[in-house]
Amino acid sequence: MTCHLLELTSKKPSSKIKRQKEERDEDGFDEENLTLTLALKRSKISSSGSNSNSNSSSLINPIGRDLSTSCLLRCSRSDYGSLASLNSGFRSLIRTGELYRLRRLSGIVEHWIYFSCNVLEWDAYDPFLRRWMTLPRMPHNECFVCSDKESLAVGTELLVFGKEIFNIVVLRYSILTNSWSAGVEMNLPRCLFGSASFGEKAFVAGGTDMQGNILSSAEMYNSEAQTWVTLPNMTKPRRMCSGVYMDNKFYVLGGMSSNSNNDLLTCGEEYDIETGTWRVIDDMAAGLKGASGAPPLVAVVNNQLYAAIYGDKEVRKYNKESNTWVTLGRLPERPDSVNGWGIAFRACGDRLVVIGGPRVLGGGMIELHAWVPRDDGPPVWEMMDSKHSANFVYNCAVMGC
């Protein structure tokens, strides 16, 4: 079996990253990794004279299935493709998603960034190894070529939504199979909605239906069951809004309540998952949105809400107690946007990431800038990586699994 991750194109990590990995190993980055390496060698030796897979259920024979699984949980998921090619036991554990489910239950998460700068094409970026990967090309569909797309990452899936003439099409990319397939439609299909995900669940709210009606409805998606559940309606209908997950609640910010770009909403709404109720928060999105109608650029790190103000090139932090925004400092200078479009502002683990780049005649660059917020100090951005691109960032999502 060919390992699906090895099918992705990538560049080798720099010497700096190699040194970081060596330092991580020296610090005892998982003693289990050493156990795994030794056990794999012993397992290979013990099975070298046999063609039977009868012991594959124990994974690494010398240490048994439970310890094998404990080791695998702590391996980087960039290694899972290679591990899946060892035998049927490894392959089943990884390709069925069971290992990712166990990682989630153990609180082990790696965040990769997925984004599209070209129609039907997606790239992935591993921030730890600083490695680019190219996903298989999306199946050709006119709705993804001729109209805006919505995207979100949930569990081990990347969902992309496109609007056709008569309906909304959903495509689903799975990291388990490295392939695209038809996704499950929402109970009320929509576009231009706000969304957020946490673990295997994602929340969507607002947007417009196929007739252009602005919605107040909301739904929750379970990626393990691949089902949508209708939630109570928001207090206000809104489109072109943004969503975040914070303090075990789903927040929807900004948007427009009509088809006029001048009718901007400055309030937010909070959905309490335990009580199943919405609460309006006046002025929660005040000052976050320009006249162009682009959704607010917001992200949550360590249960703190941040916003990128593209017009002023500022980063702001939300004060939950006073319901106000405080300016922390500047955004990276080089990423360009068109009134808020073409730039991504996302949380990636404990980092805020700005994805965009300078535009020049005939092309430009896509740059990834990262900052780890500490207290309320000003941002200190590090450019993680860059690549040539003829286009802006159309869609972006961060998958944590």
TrEMBL record:
The keyword Transmembrane helix does not apply. Residues 10-30 are annotated as: Disordered. PANTHER family: F-BOX_KELCH-REPEAT PROTEIN SKIP11 (PTHR46122:SF2), GALACTOSE OXIDASE/KELCH REPEAT PROTEIN-RELATED (PTHR46122). SMART domains: Kelch. The keyword Repeat applies. InterPro entries: F-box/Kelch-repeat, Kelch-typ_b-propeller, Kelch_1. One of its GO terms (cellular component) is nucleus. This is F-box/kelch-repeat protein SKIP11-like protein. Keywords: Kelch repeat, Repeat.
